[in-house]
């Protein structure tokens, strides 16, 4: 599990060991819990793939094998969130409300970039009591190219060609870097963040990434929901993972 | 209307027991352009007449979507209508956020009416100058209400408000037995017929009117010009043939 940005004192995070002269005491109760899960997104020249595992955990137990972490905002714009499920749900509700307000005012659906900014702003509003969520925002940009925005829990975000968040992030990120990252940032212009992979290969890569992460990360498993967003629509598939 | 001594503000009664300012506000609705609404057992249809002042301008938007299951048509001071629409949208969104379900139509209409009533009993406010036809669908089925500047609300099977709306109401009353079992197309046809009854001159075209509907398994939807054209055509065909030709839907239209 990646380190939280603040000392959130979750049960899973181990603080400094208390010694005899240590005056710091740990709180008996934490407002947060980590329900695990991993999300991955890959942007292509005319597609966007977003995938998330469906296992919901707490501590060393499984709460459910069938919990979706993908949330649709408009026809081709999705948010994928891993982390504390209560905060995820609260965030999704709030974004949906803001999305409806946007549509009333602007009489058109939110674009991926508009939602990306909205999400970043709203996460930062709670800078001093954060949503314990690891988010990805995906959609097609106005040119039809895939766009992926990656966030930390307090709203620091950027547009990237691919990203992963959640409990399996550290296992998957090097794999994606190896397959998708340009050889050297000095060789290619910095705007070329689109992966050159064709759709089928990118989908295979995402499936492999989850299967691999499921082997070692106890919070990733059961099933992966994979959405492929193109101008033709959204295609959904599920891939079973190991149940252990 | 003649000048009254007791009509300066809304907090003064006349000796006859009337509040003239409220009645004047209702006059403002009658000065607006026509809006028509009717419902069947499954759908509610709203129709408004566009009154563009000249060829150089477009007309005001008079139909507003409030939520997926609810929309309104306004007649009178459309700016007041927009303000009420904002309030209604906010209430519906709030309800959805808290209860994860659509706001019941009657509840929202009552809130609008209570809002309007406040404006009839404050010395620093004025009554709303807009009448709203509220078309919605919830667990109790399709509902149609009229919200008045006075703060009253009435439920209708079919209604028309605005300028020359009496002609539309006459048409609606004549045909009202056909509405409950009518198909959506039939309802739209009736709405257009009623609307054309209120035309001062000329014919309805796809640019001179607006249609919206909501119903069971049907989110509130406003028809664009292209989708409206077939209904206008059907209206012309029905009027062209004597005694009504084969028009859309279950309800035959007589010219």
From TrEMBL, chain A:
<dbReference type="Pfam" id="PF00227">
    <property type="entry name" value="Proteasome"/>
</dbReference>
<dbReference type="InterPro" id="IPR029055">
    <property type="entry name" value="Ntn_hydrolases_N"/>
</dbReference>
<comment type="function">
    <text>Component of the proteasome, a multicatalytic proteinase complex which is characterized by its ability to cleave peptides with Arg, Phe, Tyr, Leu, and Glu adjacent to the leaving group at neutral or slightly basic pH. The proteasome has an ATP-dependent proteolytic activity.</text>
</comment>
<protein>
    <recommendedName>
        <fullName>Proteasome subunit beta</fullName>
    </recommendedName>
</protein>
<keyword id="KW-0539">Nucleus</keyword>
<dbReference type="InterPro" id="IPR023333">
    <property type="entry name" value="Proteasome_suB-type"/>
</dbReference>
<dbReference type="GO" id="GO:0005737">
    <property type="term" value="C:cytoplasm"/>
</dbReference>
<dbReference type="InterPro" id="IPR001353">
    <property type="entry name" value="Proteasome_sua/b"/>
</dbReference>
<dbReference type="GO" id="GO:0005839">
    <property type="term" value="C:proteasome core complex"/>
</dbReference>
<comment type="subunit">
    <text>Component of the proteasome complex.</text>
</comment>
<comment type="similarity">
    <text>Belongs to the peptidase T1B family.</text>
</comment>
<dbReference type="GO" id="GO:0051603">
    <property type="term" value="P:proteolysis involved in protein catabolic process"/>
</dbReference>
<dbReference type="GO" id="GO:0005634">
    <property type="term" value="C:nucleus"/>
</dbReference>
<keyword id="KW-0647">Proteasome</keyword>
<keyword id="KW-0963">Cytoplasm</keyword>
<dbReference type="InterPro" id="IPR016050">
    <property type="entry name" value="Proteasome_bsu_CS"/>
</dbReference>
From TrEMBL, chain B:
<protein>
    <recommendedName>
        <fullName>Proteasome subunit alpha type</fullName>
    </recommendedName>
</protein>
<dbReference type="InterPro" id="IPR050115">
    <property type="entry name" value="Proteasome_alpha"/>
</dbReference>
<dbReference type="InterPro" id="IPR029055">
    <property type="entry name" value="Ntn_hydrolases_N"/>
</dbReference>
<dbReference type="GO" id="GO:0005634">
    <property type="term" value="C:nucleus"/>
</dbReference>
<dbReference type="InterPro" id="IPR001353">
    <property type="entry name" value="Proteasome_sua/b"/>
</dbReference>
<comment type="function">
    <text>The proteasome is a multicatalytic proteinase complex which is characterized by its ability to cleave peptides with Arg, Phe, Tyr, Leu, and Glu adjacent to the leaving group at neutral or slightly basic pH.</text>
</comment>
<dbReference type="GO" id="GO:0019773">
    <property type="term" value="C:proteasome core complex, alpha-subunit complex"/>
</dbReference>
<dbReference type="InterPro" id="IPR035144">
    <property type="entry name" value="Proteasome_alpha1"/>
</dbReference>
<dbReference type="Pfam" id="PF10584">
    <property type="entry name" value="Proteasome_A_N"/>
</dbReference>
<dbReference type="InterPro" id="IPR000426">
    <property type="entry name" value="Proteasome_asu_N"/>
</dbReference>
<dbReference type="Pfam" id="PF00227">
    <property type="entry name" value="Proteasome"/>
</dbReference>
<comment type="subunit">
    <text>The 20S proteasome core is composed of 28 subunits that are arranged in four stacked rings, resulting in a barrel-shaped structure. The two end rings are each formed by seven alpha subunits, and the two central rings are each formed by seven beta subunits.</text>
</comment>
<keyword id="KW-0647">Proteasome</keyword>
<dbReference type="InterPro" id="IPR023332">
    <property type="entry name" value="Proteasome_alpha-type"/>
</dbReference>
<keyword id="KW-0539">Nucleus</keyword>
<dbReference type="GO" id="GO:0005737">
    <property type="term" value="C:cytoplasm"/>
</dbReference>
<feature type="domain" description="Proteasome alpha-type subunits">
    <location>
        <begin position="6"/>
        <end position="28"/>
    </location>
</feature>
<comment type="similarity">
    <text>Belongs to the peptidase T1A family.</text>
</comment>
<dbReference type="GO" id="GO:0006511">
    <property type="term" value="P:ubiquitin-dependent protein catabolic process"/>
</dbReference>
<keyword id="KW-0963">Cytoplasm</keyword>
């Amino acid at each position: 599990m990646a380190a939280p940005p603040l000392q959130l004192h979750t049960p899973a995070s181990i603080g400094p060991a208390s010694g005899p002269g240590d005056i710091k005491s740990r709180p008996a109760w934490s407002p947060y819990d980590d329900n695990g899960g991993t999300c991955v997104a890959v942007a292509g020249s005319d597609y966007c793939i977003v995938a998330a595992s469906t296992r919901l955990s707490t501590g060393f137990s499984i709460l459910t094998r069938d919990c979706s972490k993908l949330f649709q905002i408009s026809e081709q714009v999705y948010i994928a969130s891993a982390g504390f499920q209560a905060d995820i749900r609260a965030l999704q509700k709030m974004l949906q409300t803001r999305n409806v307000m946007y549509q009333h005012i602007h009489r058109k659906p939110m674009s991926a970039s508009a939602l990306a900014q909205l999400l970043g702003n709203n996460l930062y509003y709670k800078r001093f009591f954060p949503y314990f969520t690891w988010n990805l925002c995906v959609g097609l940009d106005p040119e039809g190219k895939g766009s992926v925005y990656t966030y930390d829990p307090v709203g620091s975000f950027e547009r990237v060609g691919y990203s992963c968040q959640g409990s399996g992030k550290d296992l998957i990120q090097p794999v994606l870097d190896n397959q998708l990252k340009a050889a050297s940032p000095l060789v290619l212009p910095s705007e070329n963040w689109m992966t050159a992979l064709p759709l089928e290969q990118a989908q295979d890569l995402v499936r492999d990434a989850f299967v691999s992460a499921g082997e070692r990360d106890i919070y990733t498993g059961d099933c992966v929901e994979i959405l492929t967003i193109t101008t033709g629509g959204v295609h959904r598939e599920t891939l079973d993972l190991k149940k252990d | 209307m003649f000048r009254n001594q007791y009509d300066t503000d809304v907090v003064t009664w006349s000796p006859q027991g009337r509040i003239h300012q409220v009645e004047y506000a209702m006059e403002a609705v009658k000065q607006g352009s026509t809006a028509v609404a009717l419902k069947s057992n499954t759908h509610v249809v709203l129709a408004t007449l566009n009154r563009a002042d000249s060829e150089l301008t477009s007309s005001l938007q008079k139909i507003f979507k409030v939520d997926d299951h609810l929309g309104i048509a306004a007649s009178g001071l459309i700016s007041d209508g927009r303000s009420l629409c904002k309030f209604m949208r906010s209430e519906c969104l709030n309800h959805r956020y808290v209860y994860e379900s659509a706001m019941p139509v009657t509840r929202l209409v009552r809130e609008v009416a209570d809002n309007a009533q406040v404006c009839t009993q404050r010395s620093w406010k004025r009554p709303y100058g807009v009448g709203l036809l509220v078309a919605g669908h919830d667990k109790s089925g399709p509902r149609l209400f009229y919200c008045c500047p006075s703060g009253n609300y009435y439920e209708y099977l079919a209604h028309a408000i605005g300028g020359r709306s009496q002609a539309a109401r006459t048409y609606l009353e004549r045909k009202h037995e056909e509405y409950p079992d009518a198909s959506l197309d039939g309802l739209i046809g009736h709405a257009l017929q009623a609307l054309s009854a209120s035309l001062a001159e000329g014919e309805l075209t796809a640019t001179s009117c607006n249609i919206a509907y909501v119903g069971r398994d049907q989110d509130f939807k406003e028809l664009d010009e292209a989708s409206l054209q077939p209904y206008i055509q059907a209206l012309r065909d029905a009027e062209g043939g004597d005694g009504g030709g084969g028009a859309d839907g279950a309800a035959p239209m007589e010219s």
